[in-house]
């Protein structure tokens, strides 16, 4: 837990968020600035800077599984969706706590910008 990390503060409850799904390891909540009809962030409860420093395969598996559960909850599992994790500067990461973006509800384009 890092007091300076906004996603740790969401986990701790001091910053409000609209939670979509949650378990002991991971948490999913709506992005503040949605880029698609469904835009949910899935994070490990434990502070981890990014995928680059992830060291626990079971924890990563739980985060990924929760992303798939979010897609089912949001009703986009059959229509399709995208799961993205931005890592570091060139990856476009702006919040230094590992997160997956679950995006869906519209046709995604490729390549991403
Ligand atoms: P990144 O750019 O690091 O891949 O993604 C960070 C995401 O966090 C952005 O999509 C941004 O809209 C979202 N975000 C930033 N601050 C907050 C916040 O306080 N609450 C929520 N729910 N989302 C946030
Ligand atoms: Zn954090």
What would you say this structure looks like, in words?
Strands 1-2-3-5-4 form a five-stranded antiparallel beta sheet, covered by helices on one side. By secondary structure, it is α+β, with helices and mostly antiparallel strands. The model has no long low-confidence stretch (mean pLDDT 97). The protein is built from three helices and five strands. It has a single domain, classed as HIT family, subunit A (2-Layer Sandwich), CATH 3.30.428. Strand 2 (26-30) and strand 3 (38-44) form a beta hairpin. The termini are far apart. Residues 2, 5, 7-8, 47, 97 line the site of zinc ion.
**Level of helix content?**
25-40%
Rg calc: 13 Å
Q: How many β-strand stretches? A: 5
Just give the CATH class: Alpha Beta
Q: What is the makeup of the main sheet?
A: 5 strands, antiparallel
CATH superfamily: HIT-like
Instruction: Determine the structural class based on helices, strands and strand pairing.
Output: alpha+beta
List unreliable stretches of 5+ residues: none
Count of helix runs: 3
User: What is the molecular shape?
Assistant: globular
Span of the ends, CA to CA? 32 Å
Our count of domains comes out at 1
Mean pLDDT score, rounded? 97
Strand order of the largest sheet: 1-2-3-5-4
Q: Return the string of H and E elements.
A: HEEEHEHE
What small ligands are held by the chains?
A: guanosine-5'-monophosphate, zinc ion
């Amino acid at each position: 837990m890092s007091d300076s990390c906004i996603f740790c503060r969401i986990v701790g409850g001091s910053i409000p968020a609209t939670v979509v799904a949650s378990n002991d390891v991971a948490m999913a909540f709506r992005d503040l600035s949605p880029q698609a009809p469904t835009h949910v962030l899935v994070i490990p409860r434990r502070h981890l800077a990014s995928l680059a420093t992830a060291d626990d395969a079971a924890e990563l598996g739980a985060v990924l599984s929760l992303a798939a559960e979010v897609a089912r909850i949001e009703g986009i599992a059959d229509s399709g969706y995208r799961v993205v994790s931005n890592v570091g500067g060139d990856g476009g990461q702006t919040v230094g706590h590992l997160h997956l973006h679950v995006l869906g509800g519209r046709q995604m384009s490729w390549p991403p910008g």
